[in-house]
Amino acid sequence: MPATAQQRQTSAVPQTGEAARRAIRRGDWTGPTSGLAPGYVQGNLAILPAALASDFMRFCQLNPKPCPLLAAGAPGDPHLPSLGNDLDIRTDVCRYKVYRNGELIDEPDDITEHWRDDLVIFALGCSFSFEDALLQDGIELRHITNRTTVPMYRTSIQTTPAGPFHGPLVVSMRPLKPADAIRAVQITTRFPAVHGAPVHLGMPELIGIKDIMKPDWGDPPDMHSDEMPVFWACGVTPQSVVMTMKPEFCITHYPGRMLVTDRKNSEFAIM
Amino acid sequence: MPATAQQRQTSAVPQTGEAARRAIRRGDWTGPTSGLAPGYVQGNLAILPAALASDFMRFCQLNPKPCPLLAAGAPGDPHLPSLGNDLDIRTDVCRYKVYRNGELIDEPDDITEHWRDDLVIFALGCSFSFEDALLQDGIELRHITNRTTVPMYRTSIQTTPAGPFHGPLVVSMRPLKPADAIRAVQITTRFPAVHGAPVHLGMPELIGIKDIMKPDWGDPPDMHSDEMPVFWACGVTPQSVVMTMKPEFCITHYPGRMLVTDRKNSEFAIM
Quick one: which of A130, A24, A109, A116 has its CA closest to A73? Predict the structure, then answer.
């Protein structure tokens, strides 16, 4: 796997999910988790009160491409043993965002003080896993080459609503040569648990993207003349949906600081 | 499977490969074979002298996308038992084209008189099989809707040469909505024995196609504004290559009159 910026910075990069979580828990790792524990699944995090949990879980099931549910916790339980034996969600992510009624109230590096008996953890697959598979196949991912953030766009495609959860699909975009786009469809189809195949390619206007150079999140793309935009459902979708409905209380990971698990990306390949 | 024009014309359409070949052998079926024996593999046919056979077989192996070899015969043997127990290539295709030194010398409905002790049969997969899979998935194929011939183009992509066989890749094009193009990549990837996944999509100029409305073979496309061109390697490639090198002797099927086999399309799905 090509080394990422983070990997090149230090020779002491934790190589397993468990080692990564321990380094994070000790405060030895505070930066973006890209390149940490290569080959291990990293996840998007959403923590919601139990009163909203069943609707949110239903929302994930109805919208598996933007919201591929890796694991959900029991109410009040800060552990997710299916993703890591020792995993404690209160301490094992570098940085969090804590919202009350949709307002950001804190960005702590530990949520022990915010924990409540009714909170439910949701860990959702993230694009790092399929990007890993694309890089291993020799496909260049421009935002990684350029060390920028992948561009993300709000689309005109609506998610399927569940209870109070509703809103547009958010997509991430990677410019690829047509033959690589075809290969990328093949590769990412193998990983439905981490967004799976693209939802769209070429012609951004057909999904409501007016200006490809003006993403709603991330950096503007660096797209060559022999490349087409390829769009994947993005884990920002559930975050965007949750923020829109302004839940009484909610915690997410800080962008780029994901939950690192003990599961291998290869475990999630369906063939 | 949606009924094709041919199926709708008559209720006496043979439903199996064997029944189709018998009807052809008796002269009861003389038209295009599209829609005949639904679900059974149909093949492109090339018959060459043994002196050229090993180079041609190597050409097929080097270029599996345009030349997916279903079966090759023994020198002088007009049978291909792996594709049909009773199959006799001299009588079992509706119409043939016979070439001497690259010149068309006959278009018979039987090649018994042309048969020689040194001829080798090559049966190559054809797009009917993957089109069947696309139609079954509910993807509209415009040239079938419009009852026209799929547009085909000579590209700037070169095949890998073998002995005297060399020349450009020929592709067929089907206009599809982006989401259908992604689905089509997934579906046709399952069928490497019948051209497999597309070789290109969008941006025809990148593969040397100057005017998409002017195909080198077939009818101009009917492409809607929300569709992109999707290109598959085409079985016309080996025919074009063979014609270019002007073999001393060669027989092919007449366009649209394919070899109907006893093998099911589903047998060739790799998963």
Answer: A116
